[in-house]
Amino acid sequence: MSFLSTALDRVKPSPTIAVTQKARELAAMGRDVIGLGAGEPDFDTPDHIKEAAKAAIDAGKTKYTAPDGIPELKQAICAKFARDNNLGYTPAQVIVCTGGKQVLYNALMATLNPGDKVVIPAPYWVSYPDMVRLAGGEPVIVECGIENGFKMTPAQLEAAITPNTKWFIFNSPSNPTGAGYTADELKGLTDVLLRHPHVWVMTDDMYEHLAFDGFQFATPAQVEPQLYDRTLTVNGVSKAYAMTGWRIGYAAGPEKVIAAMRKIQSQSTTNPCSISQYAALEALNGPQDFIEPNNVMFKRRRDLVVEGLNAADGITCPVPNGAFYVYPNIAGCIGKTSAGGTKIETDEDFATALLEEENVAVVFGAAFGLSPNFRISYATSDEALTEACTRIQRFCANLK
Ligand SMILES: Cc1ncc(COP(=O)(O)O)c(C=O)c1O
């Protein structure tokens, strides 16, 4: 009998965390590594949010909280949904968790039974399929290629749904492609869902505030109010507020699902960190004016990286309208051999050789379910991005 849980056989460790770790190790050995793997902003949490956390500590807000979050924060989340998304929720329909990751995990653990299927467009955020498997469900991966901007079409969604489909996981703007669905594009998908009343939507809106070129964010329950009763709207403070380490995410949806998630949370982490909850309260209720300048900076970096990558032999990089990722295609590099002698048969070979030979850490596309590509997180300095592009261009020019 195996000591370790057989559930572990169904999952693999997060490849994005593995790449970041490998880059850190190489840097610690003295190598001049440029890490473009980590999915987090490079700027610090704004001061007013830090001050709120310090005040919470000084005021002794250091005890257990209600499992689903402090009432003030749940109220602020309701206000956020009303303000930004025109969605009405009551505190009983809201839960706060330890990061967006735990929101998604709790939701899947709370709802999946063996045989349940979850439709996931690829490229996807690395954790979705493994979380589904861990929770006993089956991911149904639908490849959404570069030809449609990495977005799912209504026909693809229609074809993927079966009587066993429980959830459709939707993420816009997307990690790893940065692609955002317009309200019209989203309406095409929600129309399909209206025809399948047994399918619920888990919408991961983590990158809502990171949008460029006038892109207007939209979320399923807003675009199609008839889906309100079967939508879990997931969001968090990690990305827009540069609070990845504070670990606060939240969701709103039908009370029965929120109550089930609360039950799981009460038997696992008890509650999200009390101090972080007060920081998140300030993030949501406090000034939002730093978001716009950050987006101006991100857009500049996006343009820099897209141009630099498109100048590399064999790489095609579309221009995304959100998040802080690009997902270039490297079909033109496959089958070649690097200067260091590595045969590039897959995007993993490409990423490995790029790290070994040019000290640039990117995440290979297979990790996100669509190849041959890689993901760059451009949430780092202009200098690092410029140098990384130079190295990638050199790496590609040397492929024979
Ligand atoms: C699409 C997406 N969803 C969820 C998360 C998880 O966010 P958090 O750090 O709040 O757990 C991430 C983080 O990278 C993400 O990219």
UniProtKB/TrEMBL annotation:
Record's catalysed reaction(s): L-aspartate + 2-oxoglutarate = oxaloacetate + L-glutamate
Example of a GO MF term: L-aspartate:2-oxoglutarate aminotransferase activity
Q: What is its EC number?
A: 2.6.1.-
- Cofactor(s) required, per the database record: pyridoxal 5'-phosphate
Q: Show where the Aminotransferase class I/classII large domain sits.
A: 32-392
PROSITE patterns (alphabetical): AA_TRANSFER_CLASS_1 (PS00105)
Q: Name one GO biological process term.
A: amino acid metabolic process
* Any matching Pfam family: Aminotran_1_2
* This protein's UniProt keywords: Aminotransferase, Pyridoxal phosphate, Transferase
Tree of life domain: Bacteria
Per UniProt, subunit arrangement is:
Homodimer.
Which family is annotated? Belongs to the class-I pyridoxal-phosphate-dependent aminotransferase family.
Name it: Aminotransferase
Please name the source species: Donghicola eburneus
